[in-house]
Write a structure and sequence with these properties.
The chain has one domain. It is 85% helix and 0% strand. It is built from 4 helices and no strands. It is rod-shaped and about 105 Å long. It starts with 7 loop residues before the first helix and ends with a helix.
Amino acid sequence: MKRTRKYELVAYAQVVLGCLATGLVLNLNFVPIHAVEVVFMMITCFYAFIALGRKVGIVSLFAQLIWVSVYIFRGVDPPEDVQIVEKIALFMALVVSFALFGFLIVEFLKLRRNAENKYVSINQDLTEVNHLVNLQYQEKTVMLKEIHHRVKNNL
């Protein structure tokens, strides 16, 4: 599927719509605590990293961070039923989730880079082996022609 790139348009649409949807829901204050939006933001960014690569993933991450900063700096008063303990718990959950998300992204990128390096290494090894086999084939072909010529001359 990676070779044909038939999924790219759909993946771009999912990332863009995911960023827009989470940002709008976060900033329109439908609910007092926005834990689901944060999780969906991280899922959207992770999907962008996996499906479309590092550059699009970073752009998606910055777009989500802009939405969060707009929400934080907008200064909307939360409803009265949200207490300070809930705010602290939400902030701690955000910090931990972004740290875990960052760890997952870093590990995924390391794994991907290692897999690409192994693929390149194996490909180079196979190219060398193929070259050696071709040389041996040419040598044996020359020897067979020589043997055929000598047998023909002896008859």
